[in-house]
Automatic annotation (TrEMBL):
Top-level taxon in the UniProt lineage: Bacteria
Lineage: Bacteria, Bacillati, Actinomycetota, Actinomycetes, Kitasatosporales
CDD domains hit by this protein: M1_APN_like
Protein species of origin: Streptomyces gottesmaniae
EC number(s) stated in the UniProt entry for this protein: 3.4.11.-
The protein's name in its UniProt record: M1 family metallopeptidase
Segments crossing the lipid bilayer: none
Keywords: Aminopeptidase, Hydrolase, Protease
Length: 466
């Protein structure tokens, strides 16, 4: 996600001004990639459960794409050695409205649950416990299914609307993660992200009026039914979430030299110059990051651009980008396809592992000089640390920019400490070792220390990487 704030000297000043404006408006299989269980390493997705989930979703929209109803089926495996007695669904779309008000239900509702017994919604109506009919042993699979109703909130947000355009980010209920720390049932935060998910397969059928264009996660095809409606089918493998948008978008498609299809969707009042710049930068960024971090595995990425969306937001194969005449934060959001999407992390516990890494990639893409970037960074207290969780940042909202400023500065300093070539090899290897897995701060520090004879302890302390 980009709120969006950036740091840069003269070479990046033009884009920085754009990102600062967006910040105000706001107050994202490589060759030889290992299997996910092996990639995550001990203590990560090798013991996280439920895993290898398959989502089959069929939804039908109303006339303007603001309301969707249908059925969702989730099949999953128990990867843990311990019996699994329950699962949790995260209804992240309820995050801001929580349980709604009398006469106004929450935006996401689940009913007619099969395959288990649902409990009451908890954690601000973002968590639904489903007790399984019998304990699942290690390696066993089961399925739960339920009706789902999605009502797009009346706000310009990742799950919201802008004019005639609807954004359905974090709308579909997804499985929570259980690992050595227990169930991850963190609260929703609007400032950043709370999301934590294992990679899964999605097959989604979206039935909508033909007048609506529907960009979505995965490889899509649109099948008109001849009666004024179209079914958009999307298939996505090894992704952490599924998002889509709906509206009277203008569209264009390009294929990068590396073979990735970049599909652009924009509202008619989006500045044309910004659309062109975002499209150009996105095409270049997909191939650039494929070279640096490992080949982009999904074949397609959709850019959704509007003039009023605050900053940007990343989803697998789809990014939402607020766009001015000078473009937007599209490169940062594309970088999130690797840092959060492919190399996953617990975004509530360790937001720096995706936001700082995406912004570091953004800085490298634009060639910003980073030696003086600390001139704009101020640590407000001893308690402020780059590796703080969203629990801290939510209580210190005016400090959250440090994830976007101090974070890439610290990674740029690590590059100078290790050497540019070593840093490049290290990040490529680190991405490969955690491909479709979960990154942690401890794993990153250990891997960095392994590529140098210099004791990095003082470096971590100085840069508040704890």
């Amino acid at each position: 996600m980009s709120p969006s704030i950036s740091w840069s000297p003269e070479s990046g000043r033009r884009l920085t001004s754009v990102l600062l404006v967006l910040l105000v408006q706001f107050l994202a299989v490589g060759p030889g990639a290992p299997d996910a269980d092996a990639a995550a390493g001990p203590g990560a997705s090798a013991v996280a459960t439920p895993d290898r989930a398959r989502y089959d979703v069929s939804l039908r929209s109303d006339a303007d794409g603001g309301h969707w109803t249908g059925r969702q089926r989730v099949s999953f495996r128990n990867a843990s050695r311990q019996p699994l007695h329950e699962v949790y669904l995260r209804l992240w779309g309820n995050g801001e409205d929580q349980c709604g008000t009398p006469g106004s239900p929450p935006p996401v509702t689940v009913s007619n649950v099969g395959g288990g017994a649902p409990d009451r919604l908890t954690v601000g109506c973002t968590a639904l416990r489903i007790a399984l009919p019998e304990p699942m042993g290690h390696g066993e699979r089961t399925t739960v299914a339920f009706d789902v109703s999605l009502t797009v909130p009346d706000r310009n947000a990742r799950f919201g609307r802008e004019g005639a355009h609807r954004f359905l980010g974090n709308a579909i209920p997804v499985l929570a993660v259980h690992d050595a720390q227990g169930w991850h049932l963190d609260p929703y935060v609007a400032l950043g992200e709370s999301f934590h998910a294992l990679t899964s397969d999605f097959r989604v059928r979206l039935d909508h009026p033909s007048a609506l264009k529907v960009p979505a996660t995965g490889r899509t095809r649109a099948l008109p039914d001849g009666r004024g409606r179209t079914v958009t089918l999307s298939v996505a493998h090894r992704v952490r979430d599924f998002a889509w948008a709906a509206g009277p978008f203008r569209t264009a498609t390009q294929t990068t030299p590396g073979g990735v299809r970049v599909k652009s969707y924009w509202a008619s009042d989006t500045p044309a110059a910004g659309v062109r710049l975002n499209r150009t930068d996105a095409v270049a960024a997909v191939d650039r990051f494929s070279e640096e971090f490992g080949r982009y595995p999904y074949g397609e990425i959709d850019l959704v651009m509007t003039p009023g969306f605050g900053g940007g937001m990343e989803y697998p194969g789809l990014v939402l980008v607020g766009t001015t005449e000078e473009g937007g934060a599209v490169v940062h959001e594309v970088a999130h396809q690797w840092w959060y999407g492919i190399v996953g992390n617990d975004e509530y516990t360790s937001p720096w592992l995706d936001e700082s890494f995406a912004q570091y990639a953004n800085a490298r893409f634009y060639g910003w000089e980073t030696r003086d970037c600390w001139s704009d960074v101020h640590w407000p207290s001893d308690g402020a640390a780059l590796t703080n969780s969203m629990a801290y940042w939510s209580g210190h909202r005016n400090e959250y920019h440090l994830v976007y400023t101090a974070g890439p500065c610290a990674l740029a300093d690590l590059e100078r400490t290790l050497g540019a070539d070593t840093m490049a090899r290290f990040l490529e290897r680190y991405a490969r070792d955690h491909w479709y897995g979960i990154s942690t701060t401890a794993a990153f520090k250990k891997a960095a220390q392994a590529v140098t004879d210099e004791d990095l302890g003082p470096f971590w302390e100085t840069h508040r990487i704890r």
